[in-house]
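D-malate dehydrogenase (decarboxylating): structure tokens wanted.
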Amino acid sequence: MKTFKIAVIAGDGIGPEVIDEGIKVLNKTAELDSGFRFDFTYFPWGCEFYAKHGKMMDDNGIEQLKEFDAIYLGAVGFPGVPDHVSLWELLLKIRKSFDQYVNIRPIKLLKGAHLPLVDVNREDINMLFIRENSEGEYAGAGDWLFKGQENEVVLQNSVFSRKGTERIIRYAFETAKREGRSLTSISKANALNYSMVFWDQVFEEVSRDYPEVETASYLVDAAAMLMIKDPKRFEVVVTSNLFGDILTDLGAALAGGIGLAAGANINPERHYPSMFEPIHGSAPDIAGQGLANPLASIWSASQMLDFFGCEDYGKTVLNAIEQLLLEQQVLTPDMGGTASTAEVGDRVVEIVASLAKK
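Answer:
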């Protein structure tokens, strides 16, 4: 039996609540299959840890995490800890240390989820965003000169290496080729006359190796408009760190809300663990009340199953989420229901078990 070692960083706010439900679902899939099991190890890192110790994680935290097959992250952020501290000292530190240069965010409007657009069919919203996750606008390069003086200057530098740009674009082409879908690149070359001109150039170069993949390229502002006006034109999408971050939140609004938004941070070579997380944030205002929607966390668990080669179970979990949405009986308040976080997780487990028997 294969044992998948999972590091759990439940984090802050609603993180522990939604992660518990994802683990519940993962354990159910392992119970249904004699070929694998999960071994979860919990780490108490996050903003509460920062308040006690002045740091977001142990000094040797990265070394500890290296031993695992994957990381399951709940949420990071809490009042009293600046967002740039919680982000850079935990989430981004893990992404960069483990070269998780591929960020995957599915934007698929499941049956039963709220359709916010008019004159658009449900099946038109089915995008896979592949975001560069290690450099670009979030490289952390820059300077702060003459701080506090009248001539204060802040420099925030974007970093686009040939290696980093080409590997994410090639990964996206490989994905589009495998899935038989088109690939769209999103940039802003008319205004960013170095980084995005370079991005477009590399996209064109790599596209020559994939003549079978239909391609398109849009400026980011036009892409934002077209995601709403004509979402069906976007199938697989590749873009930079910042643009991907922004557009996938727009995508979450198109695909039923932030409570259904899942994300994966992948090291494709598997030299390091990959990390799976809901992207809805820590929502400290509702923490501990059983109001949090765990479906994004459960969807990210489905992504983890796919990553481990258990695609059938990954699909089963996603189908279970869809059936739950269609039933309209066990939903959290953000989706118009009255169920608790745990009740939603329990119902997903029940559906997974019933689907697995078919």
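The CA atoms of residues 86 and 291 lie 24 Å apart. The longest strand covers residues 2-11.

Cheers.
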